[in-house]
Input
Amino acid sequence: MSPAQRRTPEGTGMGDGTIAIRPGEEINGAALRAWLSAAAPELVSADSRVEIRQYAAGFSNLTYEITLRSARSARRLVLRRPPRGVAKGVAHDMGREHGILAALHPLGIPVPRPLASCDDPSVIGAPFYLMEHVEGPILRGPPPASLVADRDALPGRMAALSRTFVETLVALHRVDVSHGPLAAFGRPDGYVERQVQGWTRRWQAARTHDVPDMDVVAAWLNTNRPADAGACLVHNDFKLDNLVLDPDLSSVRAILDWEMATVGDPLMDLGTSLAYWVEAGDAPIFRSMGLGITVLPGAYTRRGLVEAYGTASGRDIAAAPFYLTFGLFKVAVIAQQIHARFVQGLTADPRFSALGQVVEALARQAAATAAQG
Output
C-alpha cells in the first residue's frame, strides 16, 4: 500500500488510519449527501461536500470516515454498513446496533453518540447508520512508540491498562437491563446452551475445509456446558482494539462495535475477551489478529485477567476453562465466516486469505484448553 493510500492515524479514533475505498466497497457520496440533507439536515450545511475514506481495520461490518467539509468547517462522522454477501442477522443489523448506542449513550456508558440511521438499502446499497467520531488511540498492531519508549515505566503502564480493561468490562456488566429499551435486546434464559449450539451451526454452515479440532471442541462444549451465571448487558466482542482510549491510555473514551451485543451470561462475554487476549507463549499467528500488545511486560496473563474480573465483579470464576474454550471456538467461527466470504469471491480484502490458518490455530488452542479442563 502506497503512502498516498494510507493516512497516518494521528488519533483517528479507529486504530490504524484510513485508506482509499477498496474495490467493491464504494459508497455513493452524492446519494449519501442527498439522504442526509433530507433525514438529518442539521448535519449538512448548504455548501458542504462529502469526502469518504475507509477504515482499514475490522473484519466484519464495513466502517468509513465521512467528512462533511464546507468553507467554514470540517465535521467528521463514522458510517457503518454490512459487507456484501452476508446473511441477515443481528451481527449485521445496523438499525439494531444504532438502537443499542441510542440506549447506552444517555446512561453515560462510553459509546459514540449515534446520529442517524437508514434502513433503505437503495441509498448506498445497504442499510447503514452514522455516529460521532471519537478521537483517541486504539491499540491495534505494533505498540505505539510512546508506550514502549520508557522500558522502566512499561510494566506499570501495561498493568494499569489491564486493570482499565477489566474495570470497563465489569462496569458494562453492571448496567441495569431490567427495564427500558435494553430489556428487549436479548433472551437470557438458556443463553449458554443457545450460544454453544448457535456457534456450532455457524461453523458447519461456514466451513470451507475440514478442521477436526473444531468438531472435537464443539462436542466438548455441548457436553460440558455450565448453568447460566446470570443475565446482564454483554458486548460479545470486548477486546482492546474495540476501545478508544485517552492519549495516556488511562481510561476509555468509547467502546466500539456493538453489533453482537445482547442481554446474556457475563462469563460468556469474559470468555470472548480471554480468547482475544494474547499471551507470550501463544502461537505466533495469534499476533496476526493485531492484538499482540498484551504480551508486553506488565500486562495481565489470561489467568490474571480472570482473577481480576472475579475480584472486581464478585462472580464465581471456577469454570473459566469452559468460557475460554468457548471464546476460542467462537472467534475461530467468526474468522471462518470471514474467510468463507473471501473464498466465495465476495470480498477482495487480502487480509482474509490467511484466516483459514488462524481458524486452525484457534481450534488447536481451544482443543488443548478443553483437554486441560
Summary: The chain has two domains: 18-132, 145-372. The first helix runs from residue 29 to 39. The beta strands are 18-19, 49-55, 62-69, 74-81, 114-118, 128-132, 232-234, 243-245, 252-255, 262-264.
